[in-house]
Write a structure and sequence with these properties.
CATH topology of the largest domain in chain B: Rossmann fold
Oligomer: heterotrimer
Strand content of chain A: under 5%
Largest sheet of chain B: 6 strands, mixed
Chains: A mainly alpha (268), B alpha/beta (345), C mainly alpha (270)
Number of domains of chain B: 2
Number of domains of chain A: 1
Number of helices of chain A: 13
Order of helices and strands of chain B: EHEEHEHEHHHEHEHEEHEHEEHEH
Radius of gyration of chain A: 20 Å
Number of helices of chain B: 12
């Protein structure tokens, strides 16, 4: 059992190192990608500026505090896009074109192979800018950057990434049944729009849905609210996250398994 | 002593297909009213045995069920009915264990990682199959030297031409020295040069590893070169399953001699010759400058026929062409017969 | 002469018709697109509603006109989005473009009319869904002024054409660029930024506002909505004129590019 886990971990590192090595072989392309990749994050910052130009506070949050939310959100999303982006292509190409077959031929886990098949360093700019924003806004707010902050951030960002994985897995797996008819992934990406702002501006229904059913508020708001303690009602909501992460990963894994066995019985 | 490496009994694969209605009103109906279901049998109650160390060709028209059978034999697809026992395991339910010892080379879907250099894909595969490093390296070097792949090793897969890709893909499928190798239309789209190289590779692999090979192909030359056994499939059923030689013996009937004449033989009447030798047919073609004679080689005295022809057309023969019934023709005939026997199947 | 014109028109009209009916076939993926856009719309509207609750006006926009702006921005986005630059890039990359050279149809018109057809179809599918969503959940006012709406409709047609032409331009440019997705991604980001899709261009600092005047993106979202929201007919007609100008300029550029591209194709030979 442990031997198996070790094998997978070593395979995973090998893949990652390999991809990074390959993508760094073309430094010119990489720089172009870095610049382009940062555009959307920079635009997010710009709009944050425009918003705060027209109002001193959003809910109880000022500019730098909301910037910190943006930082955590970008970091989590950036990480997710680097390592798990291949799940995006499950419905749109792997299932329809039968590419899952070549995974089934090999004696290792199919989902593992799917996720590992593509590692997208293009999104590293999102990650780097995100971390920069966290540090920058923390400094501006006067929040001390200590070991606790670093550990806390790493732990809960990782939880965020894996919760997203579980969530995306649930919806991507529906393509085993729906095939090319409906693809839910664009909707899941569009919900990231909600993850950059303090939640007090939204109404109760949205707060409930995006906290418990589609846990996007954990990407940015809940961790920062815990650190800065601005909205006292929601300071400790962050601690639901590990449980939610486990739930979503479990459900995601189950739906995936059922979907895969359906693929194996009616493979296209 | 060759034993059975694969045995399939009463194997079936049925798909449920929903009938969709068309048009605006049809689309709305599709959402609310339950749609009609029909069952389509892609593979219909077939049984066969593959002997170890053999090369079996799986033939048949498009949509006959060949790919479905290969998918079931490789554990990718679950049968609706029946059992498969391959190397002592059930390919579908024991998949992870089973797959360690089989190699699969799908013509259109290469195993290699698109952006990585070929050698990295090979190394990855060696880790995936848990191959021991030294023996893997030794075997890989042996293969590379043998097939002159040194130049390709460090190229990313997306930069390879189809011929190069196919060869690298084949190597990838045998790195773990599988006992069973499945090839699904491996030479599709290859030019003549690479087709031949590929054939040579398969022959050598068989010699080196003593693998049992199952091959689907539309290229009958390939089938003739490689296979001992043939399974012919049409509409999900097995029409023929035996050795290649038996196939030829059973069906080889039509042989032809074509005489190309210097001067047209306008007065020639072939009926006498036809009766004498009980020929199938004698025709005059191309304004009587060609004579085509069709007969069953086994039922006539060929030597006498030829001497008679030489006498009849003395000083007039520019060229003689002998053609035996090709595998293609034999199979076509079988299929036509099968269709006419089962018009309403 | 008239017959030739008639034949041409029939050809292109049939392209429009076929793509119009594609909306039925792809209804689910279009619905998903709408839902994605509506999420973005929801987030934005909450933010600006919150801000405007505390101040009556920002840069001449009241709560009602701003939410109205966001709603119609969403509608226009949902109508104009296309895969054209990706498709053209694929054509060039796979060499499929040769198949189109053989046809007696102008390559640019082929994609332009395809986009027009698809967009027209989506107008019928999307606009009422989005409007209902806005009215029900956000109390957005839609006041019906027939003159404004007719001008708005013409303006939207121009928007569709301009967006399509830009996509074709980017697609054709892929002929000379090495990086596959870079140009498209940059274009989509710059387009989102300078078209006023997320907030009206009036909110931008002056430098950026001035830059946007020289780019065609402004005519895609900002101009049509200002036509809708402004009551002075002369300024509206002027906006339409600007749009028409961009339609022509882009058309001219695309044609030049196309000729250049096809010439290079013949030299390289595939």
């Amino acid at each position: 059992m442990i031997k198996k886990a070790l094998k997978y971990i070593s395979l995973y590192f090998k893949f990652n190192l390999l991809y990074i090595k390959t993508q760094l072989m073309y430094p010119k392309d990489f720089i172009i990608w870095f610049i382009f990749g940062s555009f959307s994050t920079i635009i997010n910052i710009f709009f944050m500026k425009v918003i705060y130009y027209n109002t001193p506070l959003l809910g109880n949050w000022d500019y730098y505090q909301t910037l910190m939310i943006l930082g955590y959100s970008s970091t989590s999303i950036g990480l997710f896009n680097i390592f798990f982006i291949n799940i995006f292509s499950l419905g749109s190409s792997y299932i329809i074109e039968g590419k899952l077959d070549k995974f089934l031929i090999r004696p290792i886990n199919v989902l593992f192979q799917l996720l590992v098949e593509r590692i997208d360093l293009d999104n590293i700019s999102e990650l780097i800018i995100g971390v920069f924003l966290i540090v920058y806004s923390a400094l501006k707010i006067g929040y001390e950057i200590n070991v606790f902050l670093i550990l806390f951030s790493i732990v809960f960002i990782i939880f965020s990434v894996f919760t997203l994985l579980g969530l995306f897995l649930i919806f991507a797996s529906t393509n085993f049944w729906l095939q090319e008819k409906i693809n839910f992934i664009p909707i899941l990406y569009s919900l990231f729009n909600f993850s950059r702002f303090p939640i007090t501006i939204f109404n109760k229904k949205i707060k409930l849905i995006l906290t418990f059913i589609m846990p996007y508020f954990y990407l940015g708001y809940y961790p920062v609210n815990f650190l800065l303690k601005i909205d006292t009602k929601y300071v400790y909501t962050i601690f639901y996250q590990p449980i939610l992460c486990l739930i979503f990963l479990t459900i995601g894994g189950i739906v995936w398994k059922i979907g895969l066995s359906k693929y194996e019985s009616t493979s296209i | 002593m060759t034993d059975d490496i694969i045995s399939a009994t009463n194997l079936s694969k049925t798909y449920k297909v929903y009938l969709n209605k068309k048009g605006i009103i049809g689309n709305i109906k599709n959402i609310f009213i339950r749609r009609e279901k029909i069952n389509i049998a892609a593979v219909d109650n077939i049984s066969f045995i593959i002997k170890s160390n053999s090369v079996t060709g799986l033939l048949g028209p498009n949509g006959a069920g060949k790919t479905t059978i290969i998918k079931m034999l490789t554990g990718i697809l679950s049968p609706t009915d029946g059992t498969i026992k391959s190397m002592g395991l059930n390919p579908f339910s024991d998949r992870k264990k089973y797959v360690k010892n089989i190699g699969v080379c799908l013509g259109q879907k290469p195993q290699l990682w698109w952006d990585l250099p070929v050698i990295e894909s090979y190394k990855m595969l060696s880790k995936i199959y848990s191959l021991e490093e030294d023996s893997f390296n030794k075997y890989l070097n042996y293969l590379i030297k043998k097939w002159n792949l040194e130049d390709l090793l460090f190229k990313p897969v997306r930069k390879l031409s189809l011929g190069q890709l196919s060869r690298c893909n084949l190597i990838a499928s045998i790195l773990h020295k599988p006992k069973l190798l499945f090839l699904d239309e491996p030479t599709l789209g290859l030019d003549i040069y690479y087709k031949n190289i590929f054939l040579e590779m398969i022959k050598e692999i068989k010699k080196d590893l003593n693998t049992t090979i199952i091959l689907t192909s539309h290229n009958l030359y390939e089938i003739e070169e490689l296979c001992n056994n043939i399974i012919l499939i049409d509409k999900g059923k097995i029409i023929f399953s035996d050795t290649l030689q038996t196939l030829k013996n059973m069906y080889e009937k039509e042989n032809e001699i074509i005489l190309i004449l210097s001067k047209p033989a306008n007065d020639f009447d072939g009926n006498q010759l036809k009766e004498k030798y009980n020929l199938f047919n004698i025709e005059k073609l191309d304004n009587n400058s060609k004579i085509k004679i069709s007969f069953d080689k086994k039922k006539i005295n060929l030597e006498n026929l030829i001497s008679d022809l030489l006498v009849l057309f003395k000083n007039n023969i520019k060229d003689i062409v002998f053609s035996n019934s090709s595998l293609e023709k034999i199979i076509q005939n079988i299929l036509i017969k099968d269709h006419s026997n089962n018009i309403d199947r | 002469m008239i017959k030739l014109l008639k034949n041409k028109l029939e050809k292109y009209f049939s392209i429009i018709k076929i793509n119009f009916s594609k909306v039925l076939v792809y209804k689910y993926s279009f619905l998903i697109e709408i839902i994605s856009l509506l999420f973005q719309f929801t987030a934005s509207t909450y933010i600006w509603k919150y801000i405007l609750e505390n101040s009556p006006q920002i840069k001449n926009y009241s709560i009602s006109s701003l939410t109205n702006y966001l709603l119609f921005s969403t509608i226009i986005k949902s109508i104009t989005q296309n895969t054209t630059s990706m498709d053209i890039e694929k054509d060039i990359r796979t060499g499929n473009i040769y198949n189109f050279l053989i046809l007696p149809i102008d390559y640019i018109y082929l994609y332009l009319f395809r986009d027009i057809g698809l967009s027209l179809g989506r107008i019928f599918l999307n606009s009422w869904l989005i409007i209902i969503y806005g009215v029900v959940f956000f109390d957005i006012n839609i006041c019906f002024n027939i003159l404004n709406y007719s001008l708005f409709f013409i303006s939207i047609i121009f928007s569709i054409i301009i967006y399509s032409e830009i996509s074709i331009l980017i697609g054709l440019l892929s002929f000379w660029t090495i990086s596959q997705n870079g140009l498209r991604y940059a274009n989509s980001v710059i387009s989102a930024f300078f078209s006023g899709s997320l907030i009206p261009l009036d909110f931008y600092p002056d430098i950026l506002k001035n830059i946007s005047l020289f780019l065609p993106y402004r005519s895609i979202i900002y101009l049509p909505i200002s036509v809708l929201q402004t009551n002075t007919i002369y300024s509206n007609l002027f906006q339409l004129l600007i749009q028409f100008l961009w339609v022509s300029v882009l058309f001219f550029i695309n044609n030049k590019l196309k000729i250049k591209a096809f010439n290079s194709l013949e030299i390289v030979g595939g």
